[in-house]
TrEMBL record, chain A:
The chain crosses the membrane at residues 12-34, 61-81, 93-115, 121-144, 156-180, 200-218, 249-274, 286-304, 316-336. Its main location: membrane. It comes from Motilimonas cestriensis. SUPFAM superfamilies: ABC transporter involved in vitamin B12 uptake, BtuC. CDD domains: TM_ABC_iron-siderophores_like. This is Iron ABC transporter permease. It comes from the Bacteria. Belongs to the binding-protein-dependent transport system permease family. FecCD subfamily.
């Protein structure tokens, strides 16, 4: 027990320090050259040039906070999905949450964009995030209903239903692409690659509230998730109400992913690779894996977003491209290393 | 008295140099074109991605005009952002204004009157009113010449613009596109404008049913395929149209098709008018 704790400390402390360094680094790095003294003054609300304080207070700090929360939400949801489905490939995309959210957002972009000229309030109220959230929730509900019968919920059928509904959402997206004008097409394309540019304080509050809720709930179920790794019947025989647990966890994941998709668009690979990385570092015990995943998810997204802000400055690369560019080769290397083990 | 006049003169000179020393970011291909046509390009410190044609990458690129970033733009320390109606997102524009950047949205539209309006608005922002009246005279002259060279309705040819890309179906330009405006200005009718707006994939049968007398493609498409013969061989359904049989396939400069109707669009319309009606 002592040995395990010793190892754990050696992983959590450096990760935490790395995250802190990345967070501080991200608010001092950007396309606008700001000296460290100026940056600190702007953070302390002292007298600096108005554009410097605006960039620090309304761009860099909000984005850092949003990245931490969204990265952690995506990684936590991915970890829980992989544990629940006992499938190393499960991520929120696989049960169709992302597809449904994408369809909702696309509907809002294509249908409401032409109306925005006459009803600017429609867009300021954020039709796209609201539609994305409802799209994601609706698909999760459908997939869950398809996978359930009087005997319980079949994980295999849920996965298949997720694939089928994702395909359906993809077809509907294609149809919308056909009817969209050029503007809406570009908006759709950009949205599907993710961006942290929507970092406003209400959005950040929503993201952190979601993260706190998810983390507290998931932490309470961590031991039940560990039991789940043995198999669903085994978990039931240990006295766990598996149906209640599955429903609760799936709905929480759907809410988390739906909210993150609605705030930042589609950001891939965080929910897929972070749980694997976490398991490599601390093993499959969810009481440790969940907090570590949250830290690593925030770290990955924060670094990716900093790169996205700087690499093609003064323009900005969609952050989803960077997470995929960094994530996919990493994942392939992981697969090579673990060939035959999974 | 002399003192007052000289003071007035000095202040006038000073105010015009203030205007001429703007640091401008242009977010829209048509806007950048007008800034260059007014000779105000010294004031530019950055443009959006569609404007790179005019400066060959010598100015910083602020990305797609729908996805402008606050910090990226501010890093160019501009005083003025001239943008099209589509530019955004709104939060970025609001924050830029808060940071003291003057954000100006120019009027939109694909008519000649809209173009002249845009020229006037941009001239006001760049302090180039004199150049603007010259430019507007040129625009009027071009538009008048085009109008005179437009045949009577019955003699007008049917022209379509096709966006041909390797591996995807041909896209047809409908109404509300610069291509449609060019077709009308050059004295032809666009049969696609009756049924579609923006760019839509076109089926072979629909193309045949439209029976265009003239097919327009972009310079880039024609260059990639090498010749009109090669283009017709690669797209057999085009060879069967009246335009294909008469080998009346012409190319348009891509720059005149991006954004909204611009000055180069008028030049292209006149060039094509001469080609088609043999003036």
């Amino acid at each position: 027990m002592l040995i395990v704790r010793y190892q754990t400390r050696h992983i959590f402390v450096p990760t935490g320090l790395l995250l802190l360094a990345a967070a501080i680094g991200s608010i001092f790095i950007g396309p606008l050259p700001i000296s460290i003294q100026q940056a600190i003054k702007a953070l302390l609300n002292q007298e600096v040039a108005p554009h410097v304080s605006l960039v620090m207070q309304q761009v860099r700090v909000p984005r850092m906070l949003l990245c931490l929360a969204i990265g952690a939400i995506l990684a936590l949801s991915g970890t829980v999905m992989q544990g629940l489905f006992r499938n190393p490939l499960a991520d929120p995309g696989i049960i169709g949450v992302s597809g449904g959210a994408a369809l909702g957002a696309a509907l809002a972009i294509v249908i409401f964009a032409p109306l925005a000229e006459f009803y600017p309030l429609l867009l300021t109220l954020g039709t796209v995030p609201v539609f994305a959230f409802f799209g994601g929730s609706l698909v999760t509900f459908l997939v869950y209903q398809l996978g359930s019968n009087q005997h319980g919920t079949s994980v295999a059928i849920m996965l298949l239903a997720g694939v089928a509904i994702s395909a359906l959402a993809g077809a509907a997206l294609g149809l919308l692409n056909y009817y969209a004008d050029e503007q809406a097409l570009r908006d759709l394309a950009l949205w599907s690659m993710g961006s942290m540019a929507g970092a406003t304080w209400p959005n950040i509050a929503l993201a952190w509230a979601t993260l706190t809720t998810l983390f507290v709930c998931f932490r309470q179920d961590a031991n039940k998730l560990n039991a789940f790794l043995l198999g669903e019947p085994e978990a039931r025989h240990m006295g766990i109400q598996v149906e209640v647990l599955k429903r609760r966890l799936i709905l929480l994941c759907a809410a988390g992913v739906g909210i993150s998709v609605s705030l930042c668009g589609m950001i891939g690979f965080v929910g897929l690779i972070i749980p694997h990385l976490g398991r490599m570092l601390v093993g499959p015990n969810h009481t440790l894996l969940l907090p570590l995943s949250a830290l690593l998810g925030g770290l990955l997204l924060l670094i990716a977003d900093t790169v996205s802000r700087v690499i093609v400055a003064p323009a900005e690369l969609p952050v989803g491209i960077i997470t995929a560019l960094a994530g996919a080769p990493f994942f392939i290397a992981l697969l090579f290393q673990q060939r035959g083990k999974i | 008295m002399m003192r007052a006049i000289s003071l007035l003169l000095i202040s006038l000179v000073f105010s015009s140099t203030v205007l001429a020393n703007n640091k401008i970011v242009s977010a829209g291909a048509t806007i950048t074109e007008i800034i260059y046509a007014l000779g105000a390009q010294q004031q530019l410190v950055g443009t959006d991605v569609t404007s790179s044609k005019w400066h060959n990458g010598t100015l910083p690129d602020v990305g797609y005009h729908r996805a402008l970033t606050v910090e990226g733009l501010l890093s160019l320390t501009p005083d003025l952002l001239i943008a099209s109606k589509e530019a955004g997102p709104d939060t970025t524009l609001q924050l830029l204004q808060q940071a003291g950047v003057n954000v100006r949205i120019v009027s939109s539209g694909n008519r000649v009157a809209d173009l002249k309006q845009r020229i006037n608005e941009i001239a006001q922002q760049t302090g180039r009113m004199e150049q603007a009246s010259n430019l507007n005279d040129k625009v009027d002259a071009l538009a008048n010449q085009l109008q005179q060279q437009t045949p009577a309705k019955a003699q007008q040819q049917k022209a379509i613009f096709l966006l041909l890309r390797e591996g995807s179906p041909a896209s047809l330009a409908g109404k509300e596109t610069p291509a449609d405006a060019i077709i009308n200005l050059m004295g032809a009718t666009n049969p696609a404008a009756a049924t579609i707006s923006s760019y839509k994939p076109a089926s072979a049968e629909a193309l045949l049913a439209m029976a265009p007398d003239v097919i327009l493609v972009s310079h880039r498409t024609l260059k990639a395929l090498g010749s009109v013969e090669a283009l017709l061989a690669a797209h057999p359904m085009l060879a069967a149209t009246p335009a294909g049989q008469a080998r009346r396939v012409f190319s348009i400069a891509g720059t005149s098709l991006i954004g909204e109707l611009g000055i180069s669009s008028l030049h292209e319309a006149l060039r094509l008018n001469n080609r088609i009606y043999g003036n």
